[in-house]
């Protein structure tokens, strides 16, 4: 058994911080025991004390929980944004197909006026869509093209039509494994077989590196007028007939200018179309 002297030496080695820790523990045990005993009694003062303690700790608990609530809200926001983006792409795709059918319907209505006596008509080609994003604008003084995400691995091939919800954007001229280059309508190298939607007069839409491409190889007595819609003619076997291209804005001294329906500088998503001709 330790002697009285040794116990006294041990007590003198305890630091003030250890004394405070022991005193706090004893105090907390005493207060807890006191509250447990008092809780059994129907004492209004004790009930009021418990209520005050709860009221005092509630803001602290609420404040401590805010970072966790914020983290949960951020996670929900990201999940919602991802879902909205997916739904937006699906809606763009559906809207694109509906507008293409609308354009085809208008073209067929105009064509029907000149083909009433025929017993049969050529079937509308089937098609599949690959919707993708414009990666970069490769426009410059001498070239009008864009780089899109998606290539051979996604089913994109050279010479496929590139469209959006408004009409023709251009055609694929190079297809890599995961990226492709699109030649826009106003590029100086662009040549698109087109025709007037009402006049049914066939011609070629020629790019000139300006905002307004023009129509070439028109006859001197051409009936194409300002305001007429221009659509693809289907000649050449690259594009089917009926894709919306633009509208005639001027006819002066044999020069017919066309305003494309698509402003390539303001688009973000496009669809590459594989027409089974």
Question: Helices, strands, pairings?
Answer:
Blueprint: H1 4-12, H2 16-39, H3 44-114, E1 126-137, E2 145-149, E3 161-163, E4 168-175, E5 179-184, E6 191-196, E7 202-206, E8 214-216, E9 229-232, E10 244-252, E11 255-260, E12 269-276
Antiparallel strand pairs: 1-2, 1-12, 2-5, 3-4, 3-12, 4-5, 6-7, 6-9, 7-8, 8-11, 9-10, 10-11
Description:
By secondary structure, the chain is an alpha+beta fold. Helix content is 38%, strand content 27%. The chain has helices spanning 4-12, 16-39, 44-114, and strands at 126-137, 145-149, 161-163, 168-175, 179-184, 191-196, 202-206, 214-216, 229-232, 244-252, 255-260, 269-276. Strand 4 (168-175) and strand 5 (179-184) form a beta hairpin. The longest helix has 71 residues, at 44-114. Mean pLDDT is 76; it is low at 4-11 and 117-124.
